[in-house]
Amino acid sequence: MEPETPPPPPPESEVPPPPPEPAAPGAAPTPEVPGEPVPGEEAPAVEKPKREPKKPKKRPSYEMKLFEKYELNDVVVHDAGLAKYMNLSPIVIPHTGGRWANKPFGKAKANLVERLINNMMRTENYTGKKSKSYRVVRSAFEIIEKRTQKNPVQVLVDALEKAAPREEVTRLRFGGISVPRAVDVAPSRRLDLALRSICQGTVSATFKNRKPVEECLADEILLAAKGDMQSSAIAKKEELERVASSAR
């Protein structure tokens, strides 16, 4: 009989690893090498280094002054009804390009000085000429500051408060008869009427007069701030209230 051939040895991949030898009692433990996984534990996931956030760009910090001269934060409005509709937020050039046009109550969000500039664009001499009206208001403010040594925006606010009418007349129809009745004026309309009266009085004062329009505007604002009857805006306000008092 032929001798039996021994079976082939198993492949190396199937050979189980030898068990770890137990440490001898009293022997020091083997030091762990940093960065190498400990046998029997999963290797920790390697985290990618995080990028540092970009630093925001520094914006130039400077005071916002009207025409780079006049402070608007110091202006005080004494009439509580008009304070809501007088926008005195800091601005350098009062020109928003019709941002609030054709919006309900949008004019209350426009700067007060810009509304004065827009109201000065009256008659064929100023219609659509925003830069010309801008120069007129700026020159008028310089004249007011030279005469009073005060902030011209504060003088303008005082003039509008005294030139704003509190009563006007409306007509109520009873049957076939229309009867005039006195009504209170809304705060927004009070400011509109005051601005309109000051600008209309200024433009009408330039006719048949050699005085330049910026001086006429400065005179009108100063007279209205004092409550003088020589001011066209004050005279119109007194007339409206007189007619309204007779129609109560």
What does this 3D model show about the protein?
This protein is mostly helical. 38% of the residues lie in helices and 6% in strands. The chain contains 8 helices and 2 strands. Strands 1-2 form a two-stranded antiparallel sheet.
3D shape: elongated
Oligomeric category: single chain
Which sequence of SSEs, written as H and E, runs from N to C? HHHHHEEHHH
* Secondary structural class: mainly alpha
Q: End-to-end span in angstroms?
A: 144 Å
Percent of residues in helices comes to 25-40%
Give a short synopsis of this structure:
The chain is mainly α and 248 residues long.
Labels describing this entry:
two-stranded antiparallel ribbon; mainly alpha; 248 residues
Itemize the secondary structure elements and their pairings:
Blueprint lengths: L79 H4 L28 H8 L3 H4 L3 H19 L3 H12 L3 E8 L2 E8 L2 H19 L7 H14 L5 H15 L2
Antiparallel strand pairs: 1-2
